[in-house]
Write a structure and sequence with these properties.
5 helices, single chain, 18 strands, 20% helix, alpha+beta, 3-stranded antiparallel sheet
């Protein structure tokens, strides 16, 4: 029996395009996931410190059925400004929800906290969102230090000096005539672990700055951080399929996609993360989707995207000389 290959990118889903933009001056940026023809959408927020826009309209009981893009951005709450640029880009092309006097682009968004990397006054704005749209295509997007992953870090429970570089990753799989893909900006306060064996790929390092040791393992030994500070993290992402889903089914798929985060990030969904996953269904395959199947595949590609994001990440050196290492620095 042949196992379907997990790899590729979310842009393998027909109707999905991705564009990145990195803001000059420090590691930060944004990523837009475009669905020009519209996509039925759902969302699930699991982290306790989220920063989002237009998530309430995705509830199955609410009116609007489709969105036209999702924005993922660095810059904490300031980064939500970038969604305005996405709206403007879509409006210029006549894309949006018809309201009579105008077509209103529907652009939900989520942000992550990366303000500790360099000058915190530099963050994604409307111009950044617009430029991400200009860069969007159906080609496989860059991974690692790109877009919303430019300033992402992981393993921060013991302080930023023991953290490692996170990043943005993507993956896809095709089963039973439908494609499911994911793109995830990995900025967890916890560690990224390989689900196949539990090895810490990127996370909190030892006191001497050595290889990542694992936050949960340290806690089980009784090694606890002196203090914990909220607002230093958040993993955000989008899963998409070319199957047809209802809004209720899309919401369930978004919920199940979080299982992929739980397999690959430890700990996850903490008080210090705003972990948020959106689900999009373009319907381009002209096949009715089964929420259980699509959700299961969404969890698989979400976990794969997390691993891809940190595997592609590169070390960064901050003003003052502090270096944040990456997974490749400790690869045997």
């Amino acid at each position: 029996m042949t196992t379907n290959r997990i790899g590729g990118a979310i842009t393998d889903v027909a109707g999905i395009e991705v564009g990145h933009y990195e803001v000059p001056g420090r590691p930060t940026g944004c990523t837009v996931i475009l669905a020009r023809d519209g996509a039925v959408a759902g969302v699930d927020v699991r982290g306790a410190a989220p920063g989002t826009r237009e998530t309430e309209l995705l509830a199955p009981v609410n009116l609007v059925e489709q969105v036209h893009a999702v924005l993922l951005a660095g810059g904490s709450a300031f980064g939500l400004d970038a969604a305005g640029g996405v709206v403007r880009w879509l409006e210029e092309r006549g894309i949006g929800h018809p309201t009579g006097p105008a077509r209103v682009p529907i652009v939900p968004a989520a942000i992550l906290f990366d303000l500790h990397l360099g000058d915190a006054s530099i963050r994604p704005d409307a111009t950044a969102g617009y430029r991400a749209c200009e860069a969007a295509s159906a080609r496989p997007p860059a991974q690692g230090n790109a877009g919303a992953g430019a300033g992402a870090t992981v393993g921060k429970f013991f302080g930023f000096e023991r953290a490692m570089k996170g990043g943005i990753g993507t993956a896809s799989v095709r089963v039973a005539g439908v494609t499911v893909g994911a793109i995830v900006a990995v900025n967890a306060v916890g560690d990224v672990v390989d689900p196949s064996g539990g090895r810490v790929l990127a996370g909190a390092r030892g006191e001497g700055g050595g290889a990542p040791t694992g936050t949960t393992r340290a806690w089980l030994r009784g090694e606890l951080p002196a203090r914990m500070q909220a607002g230093l993290a958040t993993t955000i992402g989008v899963v998409a399929t070319d199957a047809t889903l209802t809004k209720a089914q899309a919401q369930k798929v978004a919920q199940m996609a979080h299982d992929g985060l739980a397999r690959s990030i430890d700990p996850v969904h903490t008080m210090y993360d705003g972990d948020t996953v959106f689900a999009l269904a373009t319907g381009h395959a002209n096949r009715a989707g089964d929420a259980t199947l699509i959700g299961t595949l969404a969890a698989v590609v979400t976990a794969a995207a997390v691993l891809a994001g940190v595997s592609a990440a590169r070390a960064v050196t901050l003003p003052g000389g502090a270096r944040i290492p990456c997974a490749n620095d400790f690869r045997a």
